[in-house]
Amino acid sequence: MAVITLMDSPGKMKRQEIEIQIKETGETVVHIKGIKGKTCLHYAALLKEVLGPVKNLQYTSEYYEPETEVEITDRLEGKKRAP
Amino acid sequence: MSAIFVVAPLLSAAWPAISAAAVAAASALGFTQLSQPEKKQKQSEKETVELDLPGSQVLGESLAREEEISFVREGITVTFRKDIRGRCGVRVCGEGLSRSQLTRLGRQLSQRLVQEYVKDRVLTELRKKGFQVAEEEVTADRTVRLLVRKWR
Description:
- The complex is a heterodimer.
- By secondary structure, chain A is of the alpha+beta class.
- Chain A has 1 helix and 5 strands; from the N terminus they run E-E-E-H-E-E.
- Chain A has one helix at residues 37-51; strands at residues 2-7, 15-22, 28-33, 54-59, 69-74.
- Chain A is globular, with a radius of gyration of 21 Å.
- Chain B is an alpha+beta fold.
- Chain B has helices at 15-28, 36-42, 99-128; strands spanning 3-7, 11-14, 32-34, 47-52, 56-59, 67-73, 76-82, 88-94, 132-138, 144-151.
- In chain B, 34% of the residues are buried.
- Chains A and B meet through strand 2, strand 3, helix 1 and strand 4 of A and strand 1, helix 3 and strand 10 of B.
- Strand 4 (54-59) of chain A pairs antiparallel with strand 1 (3-7) of chain B, so a sheet runs across the interface.
């Protein structure tokens, strides 16, 4: 029997990082790392709300990766015999 | 990597948040905060320049009145102010300096204020989301670089 489990971080914790560079002119570059899909959008929206309008936005390949990972396990189950 | 974006920050906050950033900016550049009476006496008959803080808008209940906070360093007085419309600016006055030197100093202080404001706002919000500061540095081009991190 195949058991399919949706896991956010199978087996280990994942690192989420945001790098913020505030230039002397005030222009701020925000780099969201290791955060995928909707969660990435959530943080981007939060920082836009806090700071101001975005001049340039670029999603990287990781943004398009699914937030959850699929783990497939094959399991053998014993059948009960009829008496 | 997930996303990279560039923001031109707006100074949109209540006066206490902006004045706190002004204190941090002025202190970082060696200025000491002045009391109001000292400020009135010392600003008379000196070369003075006034600059606006672009993108500034003070919010909240203090909007109806003017606010000021002043600092001094080696005979130069700097005053961050808010007018009744909520616009912010900086006034720099001092003896022995040209208008262009005072203007350059005013711009430097304004930029530092914006950096302090952005840093405080960003860290406050991201700490609420469980992030902690992993790295903080000021690079050679005076960019403030922060790296915040959390595990989940």
